[in-house]
Amino acid sequence: MHPIIEYLSKYIKLSDDQAEAIVTGSKIQEFKKKEIILRPGEVARNCYFILKGCIKTYYLVDGEEKVTGLFTEGEPLVPVSYATGEKSDYFVEAIEPCITSLGSNIKTDELFDRIPEMKNVSLVIGGEIMARNQVSYDTFRTLPPEQRYKKLRETRPDLCNRIPQYTLASYLGIKPESLSRIRKRMQEKVV
């Protein structure tokens, strides 16, 4: 099953014709490792469904990366700029070589015309993304660093060994040295 159809099947039962229309109407774009997909000041023209790879969103604050999001296979990435039509405040960059399916307002309108039920599905997906972002934000704000890392290991274990330590540390809001100490303490507890 195509990854997009597999993802959508959690929300809607698609006929074979509808699934085929979605797959054939998808535009695939590849990004190289470290390729910048969106820069501050640019307006996002696309949203993305990650088929392969990992993408990060981040701000540059006094020359230092502040990672705010990590997206991997089977996840949608909708830059705020895409939703608002305003200039982006942050970067979107491929951490690994990536393959994505692009979405655009034109493609979305065509999809809604062809499969009207997709309007409701998009509202449900949007609501879930907002809820997931709120939980992530709340976790970040309320848990101490070691608990944040434990929570990430429970909910996204793939990220802990997949992305560079400095990126993971930035995402957790700590320095790489602190992450090393946390990992060491946790390893010592296991032994």
How would you describe the overall organization of this protein?
The protein is of the alpha+beta class. It has a single domain, classed as Jelly Rolls, CATH 2.60.120. 50% of the residues lie in helices and 21% in strands. It is built from 9 helices and 8 strands. It has helices at residues 3-8, 16-24, 80-84, 105-114, 118-142, 145-155, 157-162, 165-172, 176-190, and strands spanning 27-31, 36-38, 47-52, 55-61, 64-71, 76-77, 91-94, 98-103. A 4-stranded antiparallel β-sheet has the order 1-8-3-6. Helix 8 packs across helix 9. It is globular and about 55 Å long. The model has no long low-confidence stretch (mean pLDDT 90).
What number is the mean pLDDT?
90
Shape assignment: globular
**Main β-sheet: number of strands, strand sense, barrel status?**
4 strands, antiparallel
Number of domains: 1
Total number of helices:
9
Strand order of the largest sheet: 1-8-3-6
* Named CATH topology: Jelly Rolls
Rg for CA atoms: 18 Å
Report the order of strands and helices: HHEEEEEEHEEHHHHHH
The helix content, as a percent range, equals 40-55%
Give a count of the beta strands, DSSP E runs of length 2 or more: 8
Tell me what portion of residues adopts beta-strand conformation. 15-25%
Overall SS class: alpha+beta
By CATH reckoning, the class would read: Mainly Beta
Distance from N terminus to C terminus (CA atoms, Å) equals 42 Å
Topology:
Elements: H1 3-8, H2 16-24, E1 27-31, E2 36-38, E3 47-52, E4 55-61, E5 64-71, E6 76-77, H3 80-84, E7 91-94, E8 98-103, H4 105-114, H5 118-142, H6 145-155, H7 157-162, H8 165-172, H9 176-190
Antiparallel strand pairs: 1-8, 2-7, 3-6, 3-8, 4-5, 4-7
Helix pairs in contact: 8-9
